[in-house]
Amino acid sequence: MIRVKFLAFAAAVSTLASCSSSWGWYVVNPSTTSGLNNLKFLVGGLYYTIALSLTAIAISITVGLVIALPGLASHRALRNINRLYVELVRAVPILVLILWVYYGMPQMTGLSITVFWAGVIALALSDSAFEAEIFRAGIQSIDKGQYEAAHSISLGYVDTMRFVILPQAVRRILPALGNQLVYMLKMSSLVSVIGMQELTRKANELVVTEYRPLEIYTILVLEYLVLILAVSAGVRWLEKRMQSDQSK
Questions:
Q1: How far, in Å, CA of 162 to CA of 138, rounded?
Q2: Burial level of 82, CB count in 10 A (0-12/13-18/19+)?
Q3: Which of 101, 151, 165, 169 is the most exposed place for a label (fewest CB within 10 A)?
């Protein structure tokens, strides 16, 4: 599936390159040496975009689950901790959070931080509040009879969550988790402001040298389009797979 989409991407690039000569599609024409080198340069940011997004989403899912559990507690103080975290984190724009983590955190902690990990921390922190709400809603959607059944066979809270509640909740929230991964891929472009060499940063650097923003940013749009369509297809396949396993 991914290979098909990237072949479609290459075909789209070739089509654009054959457009009117008054435009500068030659800068991304794969039939010329310079155009091919420019395309390789642009695609070179794909690794960091994917690595940044996957690392951040893995951390945000873990943190989100930890934050979601107090929101389900009967104790009011624990629920308030969940609500305070979610509301505070969601109130901060993600671009502001990226800048604060990269420039402010080293001054607070005295530790140096790389561009990659600054981006991961900011994206994961921002997304964890949304993940917490997704997990809370998913867990609350499970029938109370499931808890009673687990209690009847002497399962503790941790085992009940691990073996009974979370597997069912994950099946229900998988589309929402997939949406968050797509969101993370798109928001990773903001990390370019602190120098991360991902897709958007690569495109910005090429625009500075080639002075062809329309053509280069069009390729950038196609890159994100192909990447996100591939991820969306993968999420749908996983969702169908989990549904088929459940029906067996």
A1: 14
A2: buried
A3: 151
How does pLDDT run across 12-29, given as a tens digit for each residue?
555 555 554 567 788 988
Tokens read off for 96: 């502001």
Q: CB 30: neighbour CB atoms within 10 A?
A: 15
Closest CA to 94 of 180, 12, 173, 29: 180
Q: Which position has the token pair 């329309």?
A: 214
> How do the domains of the chain map onto residue ranges?
1-45+213-248, 47-196
The pLDDT tens digits for 188-224 are: 999 999 999 999 999 999 999 988 899 999 999 999 9
pTM score, whole prediction? 0.85
Phi/psi zone of residue 245: left (φ > 0), alpha (ψ -120 to 50 degrees), beta? alpha
Of 184, 65, 225, 45, whose CA–CA distance to 131 is shortest?
A: 65
CA distances from 190 to 2, 70, 156, 176, 197 (A): 24, 31, 43, 22, 11
